[in-house]
Amino acid sequence: MTRVKICGIARVADARLAAEAGASAIGLVFWPGSTRCLTVDRAKEIVLALAGTGVTTVGVFVDQLPHFVEGVAKGARLDAIQLHGHENVAAYEFGLPILKSVAVGAGWRADALRDLSPHVLPLLDAQDEARKGGTGTTIDWTAAAAGASLRRIALAGGLTPDNVAGAIASVSPYAVDVSSGVEARPGVKDANLVRAFLDAVRGRSGVVPQGLFA
User: Is residue 211 assigned to a domain?
Assistant: First the structure.
C-alpha cells in the first residue's frame, strides 16, 4: 500500500478535493519563493477544513529558521513539517514528524540516506536549487529504488496520473508526492487529475492508507 501526498495546496476547495479523492496527506508551502506560498491564517483555514478527515497536513519550508518553522507549525496547527533546503534536521525536532527532501541528481548515491535519522522520512525529489520542488522534473527511478531498498522513502519529482503506477512498480516507495502533476495552473489543482492520480495509485498498490504516518 502506497501513501499519497498532494503538495502545493493553496485553496480550501483543493484540500477538500484531495481528502475526498483519498489522499493520505496534503502539503502547505510557506516558502516565499513559491507561487504556492501561504500565510499562517490561510493555512489554518485549510487545516481546519480538513478536521476529522484523517488527512495529514504537512508544512513545507526551505532554509527557514527553526523558531519560525515551529511558530508557523503551531499557528497553522500542522501535523508534520517538510524541510526542503539544506537544514540541519536536528534543529527542527520539536515533536512533529519530519520529511526531509533529498535531491537526486547526477552521481547521487543511495548510501547518503544512511546519514538521516531513522525517524525522518526522506523525500526523494529532483535537484533544482532555484524552485525547490514542484518543477515537474522526474528523477532516476533506479537510483530511487536503491534508496527504497535501504529504508522507507517518499518519492517525488515529475509524477503524474500517467506515470505514477510505473514509478511505484519501479521504486516501491512508502509514499508518493505530487504537486504540478495534478495542477491546472500553479496553486490550483485539477479535480480530474487529482482523482486520476489516486485511482492510478490504487490500481497499482491497492488501498491508499489514511494519514501519512499512521
Answer: no
pLDDT digits (tens, 9 = 90+) for 150-173: 999 999 999 999 999 999 999 999
- Is 137 among the domain residues? yes
In a domain? residue 8:
yes
Domain count, the chain: 1
pLDDT in tens, 67-107: 999 999 999 999 999 999 999 999 999 999 999 999 998 88
CA distance 211 to 149: 23
What Cα–Cα distance (Å) separates residue 40 from each residue in 17, 28, 83, 200, 213? Answer: 21, 10, 17, 33, 23
In a domain, 213, yes or no: no
